[in-house]
Amino acid sequence: MLLDVTKPKASRIALTESDTPDAFKQLLRDYWTWHYNDSLHDAVKLLLSTDLGWEQVVQLTAPPVGEVISPLGHALAHAEKQVRDAALQVLDATVCVPAGTALIGEECEPLEIDEFEIGVYPVTNAQYLRFLQDTGHEPPKDWTDSSPLNYEIYALKGDHPIVWISCEDAEAYANYVEGRLPTFAEWQYAARGTDDRMFPWGYEIDKPRCNTTELGAEGTTPVGAFKDGISPFGCYDMIGNVWEWTSTPYDDEETFRVACGGAWYYNHDYSTCTSFDFFSTNYAEFVIGFRIAR
């Protein structure tokens, strides 16, 4: 990490202590790369007033990319519960996707979609840890060799997507937050909007806008790291990073479910708005995660 001398700490603190709307807007422009709406104002202001490495520049295009922890990630491991809770509030954000006509698949078949909500980000380690602590649900496979309910262990990468999650695990989490998994059609609509774009940001690959093999991360990256890769409805990480479960069955017996978006070990040929695979509902591996819908 490098010190960004264009963003002195004193300037940030002065802006957080100001009550003027323009000061807060300046803070958002200078530091905030995640989703923002007015309901997050107090949480975001608390986070921006806390020393979380805001003046350090993370080189997301230089190795070891997969080891990057964002200021939000540092907040999730903070000693003060109110700081951790503020970060979780940011991660729990959803956006409303209005009813409309989606173009589904490479063939762009039109399909009418009702209004729904969807998570701005895939569910993270920190969010899933909260679920484990509250419910006693069995932890993911890669957590079982350590102390899975020790906050400090997985909060170190609390802003990375949770993996080793089966569809059954994902549905249990969705029920816990009074949500559900998105359908295949809803997921594609949230990713590409109303046109036939292949990537959430458009049709061309002009710079790193998501975590695929071209980035060289060799692992997950913090959610919200790619502001230039958001979908038309404001969702981050819709392609790359991790496969995301949907509620749509692949077979008549409904023993397999569709997952969308590719993952960090796929290139852009296989990580698009129309990319999908299918897995058994009890299957889990190191690149499968999910996001919630309502």
Radius of gyration: 19 Å
Q: Provide the residue-averaged pLDDT.
A: 89
Please bin the fraction of helical residues: 25-40%
Largest sheet: 4 strands, mixed
| The level-1 CATH class of the largest domain | Alpha Beta
Q: What is the 3D shape? A: globular
Query: What is CATH's topology name of the largest domain?
Result: paralog of FGE (formylglycine-generating enzyme)
Broad structural category:
alpha+beta
Please count the helical segments: 9
Strand content: 5-15%
- Domain count: the total is 2
Between the first and last Cα atoms, what is the distance in angstroms? 38 Å
CATH architecture label of the largest domain: Alpha-Beta Complex
The stretches of 5 or more residues where confidence is low (pLDDT under 50) are 1-5
Write a concise keyword list for the protein shown above.
single chain; 294 residues; alpha+beta; paralog of FGE (formylglycine-generating enzyme); 2 domains; 4-stranded mixed β-sheet; two-stranded antiparallel sheet; 9 helices; 10 strands; 14% strand; globular; disordered N terminus
Describe this structure in words.
The chain is α+β, with helices and mostly antiparallel strands and 294 residues long. The protein has two domains: 2-89, no CATH class; 94-289, paralog of FGE (formylglycine-generating enzyme) (Alpha-Beta Complex). It has nine helices and ten strands. It has a four-stranded mixed beta sheet. Strands 1-2 form a two-stranded antiparallel sheet. A two-stranded antiparallel ribbon has the order 3-6. A hairpin with a 6-residue loop joins β7 (243-249) and β8. α1 (9-17) packs antiparallel against α3 and α3 crosses α5.
